[in-house]
Design a protein that fits this description.
The protein is an all-beta fold and 218 residues long. The chain has two domains: 3-122, Immunoglobulins (Immunoglobulin-like, Sandwich); 129-217, Sandwich (Immunoglobulin-like), CATH 2.60.40. It contains one helix and 18 strands. The strands form five sheets. The protein has a five-stranded mixed sheet with strand order 3-11-9-5-7, with no helix packed on it. The chain has a four-stranded antiparallel sheet with strand order 2-4-8-6, with no helix packed on it.
Amino acid sequence: MFSTTARADITFDGFTRFIFEGKQKQLPVIIVNQGNQPALVQVKLDWGDKQGTGELPMAVSKPLLLIPANSKASTDILYQGVGLPDDRESFLLLKVLQIPKKTVDSNAMAIALQHNLKLFYRPPLPGSVSAGVEQLHWSPAAAGRYRARNDSPYYLTLTEVALLDQSGVACGQAIDHLMIAPFSSYSLNVKGCDRPVSQVAYAFISDAGLSHARRSNL
């Protein structure tokens, strides 16, 4: 019989996502070790969507950190200034792996925990994320589907997306999470809704990671 140990002692100083503004040369990322033992942490970047290919034009200044117990350390995300679009946001993943300490118990197994945090590179753009959400266009599509069209240059993150019938009652199964890329559409496949729909209820996630409830007419 084996026992497993997994500890989630790493946090990010209150951040759940990171915004790299186009005017910045580098973006500091603070990693907090809340545990009573030193933590060895590996930090790396990856493309956040399937469209991303090739070598990343960003880098991490300190890809490996040894953080003392109940302390914090920082690393910087660096951008060379070219390689990402300047007319829309780019979506990347900040991957932080907490490397477990080797166990002395031969019957125990330590598990490495990886945090995948959203990182958005935002060049100077018109409008704002909240304005993009307000302009989000919802419409019926073929075969009982519905479509959300994002005409803004921002990634829009939505949670608890639910269709509402003409009485304002939820219809079908809600979608827990979706993210709509800039200048693109997203087709919603909502299961179990068999009556006319008049609104969509959802919450959008702000830059601060806070949830804001919204309703839109179809």
